[in-house]
Amino acid sequence: MAEPLTARAGAPAGLRWRLAWPLTVGHALVAPAGALMLLLLFGPLAVVAALSLSDYQFGADTLAYVGLDNYRALAGDRVFWKSLSNTALYSLAVVPCSAGLGLLAALGIHGLRRGQALYRAALFLPVMATLIAMAIVWEFMLHPNFGLVNLWLKALGGTPRAWLQDESLALWVLAVIGVWQGFGFNMVLFSAGLLGIPRALYEAAEVDGVPAGWARFRLVTWPMLAPVTLFVLVISAIKSFQVFDTVHVLTKGGPNKATEVLVYTLYAEGFEFFRSGHAAAVTMVFLAIVLLITVIKTRWLDKRVHYA
């Protein structure tokens, strides 16, 4: 590789300064914004990591270094493991269902000759709505006595249920709400991916005798949607691990911790029990899990994705 002009022995000092000057000024101009970004991104993370190694309680004037005691306490905390398993079950239900329904909705709308924009807007409404407000609506719909769901179920000859008070049902009801709220966003992403597939590929498949329907979807559409699918799965997994609004409004983690999730455990430890050090340890575990999921999904699925 050619040696930079500024490093050549024969280059005049003035020329070396003039060539290096734009780079120096550029770094100087970018430095304040870069430092501010680093401070805003990594500063809070560093503070949380430090708090997780202390016995700090919210509002206290002092704190003491306790090392890994908070993490050891988490390892023996039944509520923490319950919330972790609930979060995993919630994600396993929400991620594939919201991605699958989003893909089916995108395919159905893409095949329409008219009204595509209307249907996309209608299915995207749950994404735009405030989730807390929608959670209150769901609370009325799922009411055991006068909720619309039980009224419809009774009209069809079924047995009304206490959907949010039943330990065996509450978490799955929240998962249904999560799918309802998230699949519209996935539908928009898949719709954009479908619009980006070259028409020539379908024409080539038709010339090669590939029948319309499942075979053409498997050989043309699905491989071309691989990058979008990877993005949808990663984003859906992260969002599902961040679930909090519906749990806080509808169940408060109950009944009997059946809907306790990691973010709600973090909130309860920090702002109800004021154990900020313990809450910081939960936060670090939560961030580590989200990072691990993202890395695994990206590394494993990226090898099966074709971007060209």
UniProtKB/TrEMBL annotation:
<dbReference type="Pfam" id="PF00528">
    <property type="entry name" value="BPD_transp_1"/>
</dbReference>
<dbReference type="InterPro" id="IPR000515">
    <property type="entry name" value="MetI-like"/>
</dbReference>
<keyword id="KW-1133">Transmembrane helix</keyword>
<protein>
    <submittedName>
        <fullName>Sugar ABC transporter permease</fullName>
    </submittedName>
</protein>
<feature type="domain" description="ABC transmembrane type-1">
    <location>
        <begin position="84"/>
        <end position="297"/>
    </location>
</feature>
<feature type="transmembrane region" description="Helical">
    <location>
        <begin position="169"/>
        <end position="198"/>
    </location>
</feature>
<feature type="transmembrane region" description="Helical">
    <location>
        <begin position="277"/>
        <end position="296"/>
    </location>
</feature>
<comment type="similarity">
    <text>Belongs to the binding-protein-dependent transport system permease family.</text>
</comment>
<keyword id="KW-0472">Membrane</keyword>
<keyword id="KW-0812">Transmembrane</keyword>
<feature type="transmembrane region" description="Helical">
    <location>
        <begin position="219"/>
        <end position="238"/>
    </location>
</feature>
<keyword id="KW-0813">Transport</keyword>
<keyword id="KW-1003">Cell membrane</keyword>
<dbReference type="InterPro" id="IPR035906">
    <property type="entry name" value="MetI-like_sf"/>
</dbReference>
<feature type="transmembrane region" description="Helical">
    <location>
        <begin position="88"/>
        <end position="109"/>
    </location>
</feature>
<feature type="transmembrane region" description="Helical">
    <location>
        <begin position="28"/>
        <end position="53"/>
    </location>
</feature>
<feature type="transmembrane region" description="Helical">
    <location>
        <begin position="121"/>
        <end position="141"/>
    </location>
</feature>
<dbReference type="InterPro" id="IPR051393">
    <property type="entry name" value="ABC_transporter_permease"/>
</dbReference>
